[in-house]
Amino acid sequence: MSSFHPDRDQLLVEHVLAALGNPVRLSIVRELASSPGERTCGSLPLEVTKATATHHWRVLREAGITRESRAGRAKAVSLRRADLDQRFPGLLDAVLAATPPAREP
Amino acid sequence: MSSFHPDRDQLLVEHVLAALGNPVRLSIVRELASSPGERTCGSLPLEVTKATATHHWRVLREAGITRESRAGRAKAVSLRRADLDQRFPGLLDAVLAATPPAREP
């Protein structure tokens, strides 16, 4: 059984923004962006429970940010960078370029 | 009493993304972007209850997307466009440029 992946033309910017607007999911996207290609989900350093991780993977996939496939018994995931760049030019680059806030003095 | 507004340097991209990742708030931001300057909150066409609108105004303000002030007995609101553009270059432009999804055939 394969999981739902929205078509590129059907991506909604508010879903993409909401999916990116979470520190765990944003860290996943940064990690995927830093090493193009597929990664197994277990290879990403996530400090959350398996159930929480599963929720975040689903939100990212259903928003159209990631693509999942089976890699043997593991789940592999990749960033849909080309789809996102074509559908929402500049958005992912701007998000990835965002810096942390300045430290309070 | 004045409401909390985060300093530009303290804005968090995940808060901004989460605030924008909602259709009502995104429509508010689009409306504010289309007519620079202050608007009274009541002048924006929102099809939600007053309590819901108040919630959305607060989320936008606390994320650093809008600035609120008093305009007599009304509340005035403006987009913090310069702050957002300086803190997260290209982000707001990419969001505002996003188009709706293609219609299903």
From TrEMBL, chains A, B:
Print the keywords alphabetically.
Answer: DNA-binding, Transcription, Transcription regulation
Please report the stretch or stretches of sequence annotated as the HTH arsR-type domain: 5-99
User: Which Pfam families does the protein's record reference?
Assistant: HTH_20
The entry lists its GO molecular-function terms as: DNA binding; DNA-binding transcription factor activity
> Could you confirm whether the keyword DNA-binding appears in this record?
yes
Source organism's superkingdom?
Answer: Bacteria
Q: Read off the InterPro entries from this record.
A: ArsR-like_HTH, HTH_ArsR_DNA-bd_dom, HTH_MetalResp_TranReg, WH-like_DNA-bd_sf, WH_DNA-bd_sf
Protein name as catalogued: ArsR family transcriptional regulator
